Structure formats: structure tokens, C-alpha cells
Amino acid sequence: MSATKAVMHGAVSIVNAIATGKGATLGISLNVEANVDATPGTGIFFENRESSLSSRLISAVIEKAVPKTDLEKNKIRILIKSEIPAGYGLKSSSAISSVVSLACAKMFRPKVTDLEVLKYGVEASIQTKVSITGAFDDACACYFGGFVVTDNTNLRIVKSEKAQEDLVAVIFIPRSRKRGNVKKLKILDGVFSQAWALANNSDYWNAMMLNGLATSTILNSDPRILTDLVESGALAASVSGNGPAIAAISKKENVSNVKKVFASMEGTTIISNVNNKKAEVYEM
């Protein structure tokens, strides 16, 4: 039997990529782990403790990451452990597809590149309709950490740099998962282009605020919350992904004040350090 374990992290949005095909993201420290083992036989067996995860997505990733000849002679078992709330815009699907891809590639494609690992997950996300764009920007931040600015359409990393170590993400998870029509984000493609240009110039906080104001008007969030968060000490705030989670980035000394903004709202608040650490994979 051979076995591998891969670990990577979540992320929050700086610029949503749906409108233009270009996005920007920031890694956070909530993590996800994939344990994969292979024994003689056939079939993919998903031993999952997280009921909200998609076995269809994971099967599609495995079918891309593992060569067909190896799939035909191995029984592959996979177990996912995730700290990332699913379905709130915190990149759980990108983290899961990428971590599964990395664990399988380590086992069956030892010379695989980082970009190839990411492509398997992106292609599976599009194939299974988990993501409209494939969320290459999200996958990159989960995989590499730090700030990542991408051209999703061409699967190209335009900029990647470390974040300050004293930054914290204050994330609000609403009780309701209701969100607006994400396809309507394209109405404001010019605004998202401007936000992306700011991110590409390393002006991440203004990019995030512009993204937040644009997304909140379409995705049923109150944009006044974003200004309240900044007034309380956040560097920037935005709807993360397609929501409904709201993420505020703050220096550590301002976290308690930023957190108070969410106190009267129905839901839970998560505190997570930013993450600059690249994904890791081990042979077991």
C-alpha cells in the first residue's frame, strides 16, 4: 500500500473573477487535509467526515490527477478533514480540489508541476459545475498563500507576494446562506476591472473595498457594513467570493473592535491569521 497526506489552506477574496475572468485573493490559515491511500484493485472510495463536501468533485479531480493506467489497477481511498466552512465563499471547494490533486499527484505523478496540480482541480471544478470560472485565483491562494493576482481565463499568475505577518481575517458567517444572482456581477465588469488593476498594483485594500461595494449591492449584503468595519479599524472588507461570508482584514490590535461590528448580526464570527505558507505533501 502507498499513502500520502497533503495540507493547504483557505482564502478570502480581494477581487471576484466572475465578471472579468481576472481575480485576486489572500490566503488565510484555516486548513484542509487530504489523506489518500492506494491498494491493488479498482474504484474510488470517499471516506468523508464532512457531509457537505462533493464526492462528484473529488472523483473528477482524482480521474484527472491519476493516470488512467494507474486508476485501472488501484483502489483509491480518500479522507478529507476541513476547517473551512463550505458554501460561504471561503474557497473550500478550491482548497479541497487542490489538496486532493496534490496528494494524488505526489503518489502517481512524482514529476508534476505546481501549475499542473492546480489545473487538475480547476478543470474538475468546471466539469462538475462547482465553479463558473474554475476559480484559478482561489486555488492559487489556497496553494501558495499570500496575495495572488491571476488571469483565470489563461490560467496565469500575474502577481504573487507575501502578506504582512501581523494581519488577521475577521470573517462573518451569516446564519442564512441566501445570496444574489452571481451572473449579474458581469453588469459591473468595468468596476471589477478597476479593482483588479488596483490589486495588480499591490493596492490590495482599495481593491478589496471596491470589490466589496460592487459585490454587496448585487449579492444581497448591506454595503454599510463594509464602511462600519473600516471605521472600526479594518484595513479593508468585502463579501468573500460569491458570499454570503464577509471578510475584514485587520491588524491584530484592532481585531476586537472589528469583531464588534458583527455582534448584533445573526451568525458566527471566525478569526483566522493570514497564511503565507505553501501547500505541503508527505509520503506516509
Offer a few descriptive terms.
284 residues, alpha+beta, seven-stranded mixed β-sheet, four-stranded antiparallel β-sheet, 11 strands
Alpha-beta content class: alpha+beta
Tell me, rounded to a whole number, the average pLDDT: 92
Q: In angstroms, what is the radius of gyration?
A: 18 Å
Strand content: 25-35%
Helical coverage, percent range: 25-40%
The count of helical stretches stands at 9
Largest sheet: 7 strands, mixed
Question: Runs with pLDDT <50, length 5+?
Answer: none
Taken from the alpha-carbon principal axes, the silhouette is globular
Order of helices and strands: EEEHHEHHHEEEHHHEEHEE
Structure write-up:
- This protein is of the alpha+beta class and 284 residues long.
- Helix content is 34%, strand content 30%.
- The chain is built from 9 helices and 11 strands.
- Strands 1, 2, 3, 4, 5, 6 and 11 form a 7-stranded mixed sheet that branches.
- Strand 8 and strand 9 form a beta hairpin.
- Helix 1 runs parallel beside helix 3, helix 3 crosses helix 4 and helix 6 runs antiparallel to helix 7.
- It is globular, with a radius of gyration of 18 Å.
- The chain starts with a strand and ends with a strand.
- The model has no long low-confidence stretch (mean pLDDT 92).
